[in-house]
């Protein structure tokens, strides 16, 4: 391994690339060659340094200086100043305030990084960087010292559970697959992270792909498999590229292929790309898709451990599950199970989104309360508004109100509260959110993504959406709530896969915790959060309005009338509720009723 | 100008290249369809005919797969495909206004292609870059933090 005195990380995110990051990087390398520094300074590509708005940008280590707004013309000066003379070129230094990585900032006191430990720190396209961080040591240890049974026992003892959302004990899954007599067996990684707003797995695949590969190799050794597949969604082209590079490098080093590390263990991997279907994140649909069919789920049993891919025993785990495995082997089951609660061990990554101050990726030990996540890790609600609800578990999860803020994050606790862990999306909503509108929004998504195989899911979600749309449009009828409840029960009971069974969840949970909002929409034709356009009215407050005419002049449909210096009036029949008048009024005279 | 149609020979070449690369087996069907869709812009009937012949699979099965996945299209697409993220994180970050600006500018609705064959407008599932929402993708270019006012100038980059 070569040693460098300086490491330079260039951001190659789409936004920086658009602004010419590659050209600047090429110029930088040319200049290093010209100055004879190319053997002393290592140039790496990375993602999300945090200043894309002022890109192209780079970070220089060990100093930790962040340069932004670079052009190819600036490079000779920058190289001379920083790398020859050792002075910081202050005119390109990014001011600290914009230095935030929206996806991954420095961990707060309550965070513990196991899965995300290497993300943003190592070059994902260089296997040596991973090896320098103890990479592939766990594989070596397992192949040299462990029987497959001992691997499974260690994973069982660690308490690791499936991070895809269902939370099935990983060691048990491996045990079942190992017990299947039929061969060959397959190891599959579910990298079809489709939940809107959840991008924890993408970050690991793009930032630390070898940890996933190593976890899969250990799983393969444990169950007795020699072929693996990573099913990655087509919406993640960079992840697919990083994975392919990682596989090639592992192969070149003899870490994939025949007789790995001289142990007699054979294993190889292939990346399969999806083609855009949310339901393929469901394990049986995913396998159907690898086989080249429509990604439709099939009934279980038989479980994949018995009859999976190509009707052979298969072990399927999520990206995050696999990337935990090497650390468990290296540091021990006891270390891992020291994090978390009685039944949920270790850490979990979440994508924190919505009306919270610090959105982005977090990794916390299980057992933290929702309050700690929202207020300590997330920094609280934007503009210090009131917390209204948090949605956990992605589109098929549930919305929990503020009475549940002290609930610990743990598989069982969330399920009991009527939501679920899911893959790790957390959407925080403030007081200005209409829960009926939110339910309608998620139902629209689910309805769109239903694969169409089971009638209750295909037709039932459509009917539910129609009712919700009607309620939001101010045309709710008596009996709508009861019909929704009936449909929720039927769809949940009669659908085959997790998508259909979970489909009613957004409605079930909002009906349970925010029933009064549904009733206000239906009975009083009123949207308490003032979101549903058909149920709100803009009005001008007499006495506050100065008659400056700015609203009337900006109204796109000429709904506002009034004399100069007199209070103006909005005609509700003409008004389209666009809200422009409210934005342009200098006196806060316009209110929503 | 009418929508650019690839002639039969080009379609056949695209199919041959894809099958050579992945092998003529049914479990490679999705990679093959993905590649042909990319090369031709969509999956014309001739392509499905040819794949059906070489992979020895019924056409009905091919069509059922081709019509299932969002990224495969059996209808001709414009020269530039705009994929717009319509999911919650982008939606709340101002995506609704960007979508309005796009539909106003192009006079297209979701899944439509312009009469001159230049643009296709489609919605996409979450691209996982929610930190920079609203997000849209034109061909292979990703645009983040899109403001409705930027839409005309972004579109003007494509000919």
List strands and helices in order, with pairings.
The complex is a heterodimer of chains A (593) and B (159).
Chain A lengths: L5 E6 L2 H5 L2 H14 L6 E6 L11 E4 L3 E3 L7 H10 L42 H6 L4 H9 L2 H11 L11 H10 L6 E6 L8 H8 L1 H15 L3 E6 L4 H16 L4 E4 L4 E9 L9 H8 L23 E5 H13 L1 H5 L9 E8 L5 E6 L4 H8 L9 E6 L5 E4 L9 H6 L8 E6 L4 H15 L5 H18 L7 H15 L3 H5 L2 H9 L1 H9 L14 E3 L9 H5 L5 E2 L7 E2 L9 H5 L5 E3 L1
Parallel strand pairs in A: 1-2, 5-6, 5-9, 6-8, 10-14
Antiparallel strand pairs in A: 1-3, 3-4, 7-8, 10-11, 12-13, 12-14, 15-18, 16-17
Helix pairs in contact in A: 5-9, 5-12, 6-7, 6-9, 8-9, 8-10, 9-12, 16-17, 17-18, 18-20
Chain B lengths: L7 H15 L6 H12 L4 H11 L3 H8 L13 E6 L2 H19 L5 E2 L5 E6 L11 E3 L2 E3 L7 H5 L4
Give a short summary of the structure:
The complex is a heterodimer of chains A (593) and B (159). Chain A is built from 23 helices and 18 strands.
Architecture overview:
The complex is a heterodimer of chains A (593) and B (159). Chain A is α/β, with parallel strands linked by helices and 593 residues long. Chain A has 23 helices and 18 strands. In chain A, the strands form 5 sheets. A 5-stranded mixed sheet of chain A has the order 7-8-6-5-9. Chain A has a 5-stranded mixed sheet with strand order 11-10-14-12-13. In chain A, a hairpin with a 5-residue loop joins strand 10 and strand 11. The longest helix of chain A is centred in the last third of the chain and has 18 residues, at 455-472. The N and C termini of chain A lie far apart (68 Å). Residues 97-102 of chain A have low confidence and may be disordered. Chain B is α+β, with helices and mostly antiparallel strands and 159 residues long. Chain B has 2 domains: 8-66, no CATH class; 80-155, Glutaredoxin (3-Layer(aba) Sandwich). Chain B has a 5-stranded mixed sheet with strand order 2-3-1-4-5, with helices on one face. In chain B, helix 1 (8-22) packs parallel to helix 3 (45-55). Chain B is elongated. The A-B interface holds A 14-15, 18, 48, 52-53, 102-103, 193-199, 202, 234-236, 272-278, 289-295, 310, 351, 353-354, 359-360, 427, 441-442, 445, 449, 451 and B 25-31, 33-34, 61, 64-65, 68-72, 87-89, 91-92, 124-132, 141-145.
């Amino acid at each position: 391994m070569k040693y460098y005195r300086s490491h330079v990380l260039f951001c190659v995110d789409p936004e920086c690339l658009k602004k010419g990051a590659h050209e600047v990087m090429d110029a930088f390398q040319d200049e290093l060659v010209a100055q004879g520094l190319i053997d002393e300074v290592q140039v790496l590509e990375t993602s999300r340094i945090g200043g894309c708005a002022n890109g192209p940008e780079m970070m220089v280590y060990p100093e930790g200086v962040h340069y932004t707004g670079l052009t190819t013309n600036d490079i000779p000066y920058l190289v001379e100043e920083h790398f020859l003379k050792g002075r910081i070129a202050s005119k390109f230094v990014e001011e600290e305030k914009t230095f935030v990585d929206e996806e991954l900032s420095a961990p707060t006191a309550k965070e513990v990084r196991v899965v995300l430990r290497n993300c943003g720190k190592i070059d994902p396209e260089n296997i040596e960087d991973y090896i320098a961080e103890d990479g592939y040591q766990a594989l070596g240890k397992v192949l040299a010292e462990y029987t497959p049974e001992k691997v499974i026992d260690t994973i069982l003892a660690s308490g690791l559970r499936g991070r895809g959302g269902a939370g099935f004990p990983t060691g048990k899954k491996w045990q079942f697959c190992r017990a299947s007599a039929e061969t060959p067996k397959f190891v599959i990684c579910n990298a079809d992270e489709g939940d809107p707003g959840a991008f924890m797995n993408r970050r690991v695949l793009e930032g630390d792909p070898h940890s996933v590969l190593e976890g899969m190799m250990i799983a393969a050794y444990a169950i007795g498999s020699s072929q693996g597949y990573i099913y990655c969604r087509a919406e993640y082209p960079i992840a697919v590229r990083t994975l392919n590079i990682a596989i090639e490098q592992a192969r070149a080093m003899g870490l994939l292929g025949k007789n790995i590390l001289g142990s007699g263990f054979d294993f190889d991997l292939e990346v399969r790309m999806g083609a855009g279907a949310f339901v393929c994140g469901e394990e049986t649909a995913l396998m159907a898709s690898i086989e080249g069919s429509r990604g439709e789920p099939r009934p279980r049993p038989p479980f994949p451990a018995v009859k999976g891919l190509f009707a052979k025993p298969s072990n399927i785990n999520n990206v995050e599950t696999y990337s935990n495995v090497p650390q468990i082997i290296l540091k021990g089951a006891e270390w891992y199970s020291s994090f978390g609660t009685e039944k949920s061990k270790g850490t979990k990554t979440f994508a924190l989104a919505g009306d919270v101050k610090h959105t982005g990726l977090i990794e916390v030990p299980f057992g933290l309360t929702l309050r700690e996540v929202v207020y300590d890790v997330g920094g609280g609600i934007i503009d210090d508004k009131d917390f209204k609800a948090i949605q956990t578990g992605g589109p098929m999860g549930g919305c929990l109100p503020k009475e549940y803020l002290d609930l610990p994050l743990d598989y069982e606790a969330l399920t009991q509260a009527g939501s679920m862990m899911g893959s790790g999306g957390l959407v925080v909503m403030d007081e200005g959110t209409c829960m009926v509108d939110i339910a309608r929004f998620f139902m629209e998504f689910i309805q769109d993504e239903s694969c169409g195989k089971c009638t209750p899911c295909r037709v039932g979600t459509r009917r539910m959406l129609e009712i919700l749309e009607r309620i939001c449009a101010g045309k709710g009828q008596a009996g709508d709530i009861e019909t929704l409840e009936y449909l929720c029960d039927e769809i949940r009971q009669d659908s085959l896969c997790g998508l259909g069974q979970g489909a009613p969840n957004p409605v079930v949970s909002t009906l349970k915790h925010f029933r009064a909002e549904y009733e206000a929409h239906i009975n009083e034709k009123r949207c308490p959060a003032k979101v549903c356009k058909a149920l709100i009215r803009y009005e001008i407050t007499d006495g506050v309005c100065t008659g400056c005419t700015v609203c009337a002049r900006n109204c796109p449909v000429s709904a506002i009338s009034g004399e100069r210096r007199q209070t103006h009036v909005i005609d509700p029949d003409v008004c389209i509720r666009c809200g422009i008048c409210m934005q342009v009024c200098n006196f806060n005279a316009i209110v929503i009723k | 100008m009418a929508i650019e149609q690839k002639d039969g020979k080009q379609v056949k070449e695209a199919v041959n290249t894809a099958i050579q690369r992945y092998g003529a087996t049914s479990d490679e069907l999705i990679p093959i369809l993905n590649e042909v869709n990319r090369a031709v812009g969509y999956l014309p009937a001739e392509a499905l005919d040819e794949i059906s012949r070489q992979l020895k699979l019924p056409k009905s099965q091919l069509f059922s797969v081709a019509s299932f996945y969002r990224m495969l299209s059996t209808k001709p697409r414009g020269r530039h495909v705009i994929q717009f993220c319509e999911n919650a994180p982008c939606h709340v970050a101002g995506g609704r206004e960007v979508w309005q600006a796009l539909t106003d500018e192009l006079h297209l609705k979701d899944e439509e292609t312009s009469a001159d064959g230049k643009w296709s407008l489609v919605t996409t599932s979450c691209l996982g870059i929610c930190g920079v929402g609203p997000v849209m993708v034109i061909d292979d270019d990703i645009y983040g933090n899109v403001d409705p006012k930027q839409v005309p100038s972004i579109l003007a980059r494509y000919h």
